[in-house]
What does this fold into?
Amino acid sequence: MSLANPVMLPLADYQARHVRFAVTGKVATLTLNRPEKKNPLTFDSYAEIVDLFRAAAKEKIVKAFVVIGADGNFSSGGDVHEIIGPLVRMEAAQLLEFTRMTGEVVKAMRACPQPIIAAVDGVCAGAGAIIAMASDIRIGTPNAKVAFLFRRVGLAGSDMGACAVLPRIIGQGRAAELLLTGRSMGADEAERWGFFNRLAAPDRLLADAEALARDLADGPTFANSMTKRMLEMEWAMSVETAVDAEAVAQALCMETEDFARAYRAFAAKEKPVFEGN
It folds into this structure.
């Protein structure tokens, strides 16, 4: 149940064992890849996902991530036989080790400086729904069904930070309904409630997600990472504290060469070409 070996190589050179992982240009695509079982998570895939997103903090090439599931489904959550079965035989200390380990997925995704786009088709349930939730932007398809179904297996909806993050995306009452009932949320409802930023046709899902990722990766990536960091930090700040914190953050961005590039491009009536420094 321990976390996998830390990723030491540049992400472009990393050979994943428990998920599919590829880097094209500045965009990394992580594919949950057990399509015969609707892409469930295992102890090993949890750990590898944590390591990949932790490694992103020191990454020089990858500037944005896409997370998707293989063959028409995002993820059915924790594997019933490979995870839930063993859990019922564990002692309290082992169970706490497991829940802390799964929570590291969300912590690693939120600490990852690059924006993460979840491309969601088909089943998106349990821990799969949490991975979508922990992403920065979510694109769904009309076939997507999202369910925080912990209640259905006798567990609380307070799993992997759901009670903290989900209300901030869709609101307290809506989050309470989904977490207490475990019911599925259809694609139109998920878009209307703000869980999905937008919907795409299934055959366009990956292309649309990667196009958005490329657009973000070609932008002022230091500033992007600052925006993500401040969105995270300001959850726990008063408005006055947040305004002061953003003054410092923006001043730091004004010291970057990308800020100067943007000014020079504007003066020359050209489109700026950002380099992330």
